Amino acid sequence: MIGIWLENKTLSVRDDLPIPAPGPGEALVRMRLAGVCSTDLELCKGYYPFRGVPGHEFAGQVVEAPGSPEWIGKRVVGDINISCGQCESCLSGRPHHCLHRKTLGIIQWDGCFAEYFTLPVRNLYPVEEDILDEAAVFSEPLAAAFEIQEQVHIHAGMHVLVIGAGRLGLLAALSLALTGCDLSVVARRPRPQAILRERGIPYLAAEDIPPHRADVVVEVTGSPDGFDLARRAVRPAGTIVLKSTFKGNVQLNLSSLVVDEVTLVGSRCGSHPAALRLMQEKAVDPCPLVDAIYPLSAGLAAFEHAAKPGALKILLRP
Question: What pTM, to 2 d.p., does this model score?
């Protein structure tokens, strides 16, 4: 089968990859659409020492499911965290923090940038007929965006600032806007500004951020500089939600965080059912974020496009 291969921080397109065989409790999924995200780009820089097929955002269709024939033919999205089900975290109801966690296309599990891939059946969620593949492929990042509201109580009147109007930042803004909070987004490129303007979400430049005013700041720039902006924007006793993942370190003045009693919240994956519900109810439409769709055979060009400044969502299809 055709797939994208990552090894020693180098991408290649291969046509000799074997179709994986699903193990007990797993399903073989045919990829219909897959999305390139910032984490995929960071993997190429060595964010994790990954070797194999990357990719974790997908809309697919089950073609094999030994022991679970009711799944065959269903369109699906899926949780990317493969947990053991037996460790302390799993038994405590925290499978996303499994002590032996594998992660689709990121940690020890081949991803969805191939014609076929596998996932445990328990990780799959069916997609209703009225949700397009072009929307369903956003289920994973939209779930990650909606996770913010499951971690931090955000209500009408709160001053909330999103720093970073890229792929995930825009999804965070679209979902946060549903809370009725006093929301604004740092956006400097015309395309994100147009998407925000169409939805009535105010935006501003980084230099215009009011200092120490925001109750909650969501940092999703994908760069170390984003934290400095967030720190400047958050009020004393406020909250900074960290969404960025990148290779490298950030220097922190921990004393100022202690004195101002600022809460830091790491935020990663979220609920696929919540994301699918938002799309089915047309509360969030992610389709305007799609910049281009490439075939798998042009996967290197797709990654180059996704890495360009200002690029939004780049999709792959078989």
Answer: 0.93
